[in-house]
Design goal:
about 160 residues, Alpha/beta knot, five-stranded parallel beta sheet, 5 helices, about 20% strand, globular, Ribosomal RNA large subunit methyltransferase H, Alpha/beta_knot_MTases, rRNA processing, tRNA_m1G_MTases_N
Length: about 160
């Protein structure tokens, strides 16, 4: 399985980079994982709704350019479907079973995702009703993907 994490913005915090690198390394026996960062759009304080939409649209175009037509897209969105770790594992297992070997998870910037990204998404996933920094979401996401593979293989780690 090929998993791509498309994300807006650069990761700066060393401790988050180290955690993500560790889980990507742990995922190596199960999947090829790549992380693609696109630059976030400069945004002054006090943006109007039109400014926010324009920023999301520009970031969305750059994200869409990184997707191939045969990629199954899972966007992280606060209004998305909430799953347990076991349910996420089942979703990934079913995708693999039905030949969907290219999966992209999309993490938007601080303003969220464009309507075009949400329309392109095959699934919208929410990790919580709370808002998390998008840099921290990368770590949470790779850990949950790793956990899903361990669950699907019946290997220890999950509990």
């Amino acid at each position: 399985m090929n998993i791509t994490i498309l994300t807006v913005g650069k990761l700066k915090e060393k401790y988050l980079k180290q955690g993500i690198e560790e889980y990507v390394k742990r995922l190596t026996p199960y999947a090829k994982v790549s992380i693609i960062e696109i630059p976030d759009q400069p945004a002054p304080e006090n943006l109007s709704p039109a400014d926010i939409t324009a920023i999301k649209d520009e970031e969305g175009k750059k994200l869409l350019a990184k997707l191939s037509p045969d990629t199954y897209v899972i966007s992280l969105a606060i209004l998305g479907k909430q799953l347990t770790s076991e349910q996420l594992a089942k979703e990934l297992d079913q995708l693999a079973t039905y030949g969907r070997s290219k999966i992209a998870f999309i993490i938007g910037g601080s303003n969220g995702l464009s309507d075009e990204i949400l329309k392109r998404s095959d699934m919208q996933l929410s990790f919580s009703k709370m808002t998390f920094p998008h840099q921290l979401m990368r770590l949470i996401l790779v850990e949950q993907v790793y956990r899903a593979f361990k669950i699907n293989r019946g290997e220890t780690y999950h509990k």
